[in-house]
Amino acid sequence: MPDIALIGPGAIGGTLAAWLATHSDNELSICARTPLDTLVVDSPFGVMESRPNVITDPSRAVPVDWVLIATKAYQMESVAKWIPSLSHSDTMFAVIQNGVEHLANLKSIVPKAQVVPVIIDCPAERLAPGRILQRAPIKMTIPKGAASERFASLFPNSNITILQTDDWTTEAWKKLCINSGGAISALLNEPANVVRQSNAADVMRGLIRECIVVARAEGAVIADSVVEEVVAGQAAAPDGAMNSIHADLVEKRPMEWDARNGVIVRLGKKHGVPTPYNEMAVSLLRALEARNTNP
Ligand SMILES: NC(=O)c1ccc[n+]([C@@H]2O[C@H](COP(=O)([O-])OP(=O)(O)OC[C@H]3O[C@@H](n4cnc5c(N)ncnc54)[C@H](OP(=O)(O)O)[C@@H]3O)[C@@H](O)[C@H]2O)c1
Q1: Which CATH number fits domain 3-166: 3.40.50.720, 3.40.50.300, 3.40.50.1460, 3.20.20.140?
Q2: Where are the alpha helices (DSSP H) in 197-275?
Q3: Of 16, 31, 33, 43, best ligand 1 pocket probe by most atoms within 8 Å of the beta carbon
């Protein structure tokens, strides 16, 4: 079995690490910023408990076959410190994050052929270091290809769904349609179904329409109907359901506004597409973040 290092044992990384530690025979190391002793994940399939090998000092890491990166997108700069000691010439990297810049974020550090970009759907919350509540089964979407086959083989016979797609770009941008529109919850400090109010729904529509135009300029194939599908999906969310950017706001953590809305503005500029809704969302989210993290 391959040696694996997982960087970022938060809600997503901790859930994946718990599965690897309890269901497979690989050598797993967790690269953490905050130390943890045991890893306990309350999942829909039961509690997974383990005592994995945890490293907090990049200079103590050793080369592995696979590096799984599951930090927030804005933490990639600090992730880079782990890469030299974890890498040999054939080390493979999986970037498991929201957004569409999985490959771009590792561009100057790792050859593209050694990176598998992963879109993950799995509502999970970190209750404390090493304590995670996984609310639903994991689904991961990766591009079709030999590297992805190898990534999928890390999770054999599991309750984790792994979809290999011919058009990863489209899948990633479809998810970004949901995530970009989700800014409205953080901006209003209201749960996902706030879009039952027509004014909130109209702002969400504006955010998503811009996302779709930029997505198409980037080569994604997305129908106009996605706008109403996303709004209807959010309106149907149960009372209190909180998306992750809203959860970050409430917990006064930095927010992934750049990976979710800033990217639409940046790539919009590249393609000459105006993105006023997303520009305003970025400005307001930055201001909220600054107020929260520097009270
Ligand atoms: N949570 C969800 O439900 C969900 C669902 C789908 C997709 N996603 C996406 O998945 C990605 C991860 O999200 P998350 O919710 O799992 O985030 P998270 O709970 O904040 O976890 C991030 C983890 O990375 C650690 N970390 C940060 N910098 C590090 C470094 N330099 N070295 C080692 N560890 C480091 C953090 O350590 P500390 O303990 O010190 O903070 C934390 O444990 C994001 O892109 C998110 O949008 C999340």
Answers
A1: 3.40.50.720
A2: 198-217, 226-235, 244-250, 257, 263-271
A3: 33
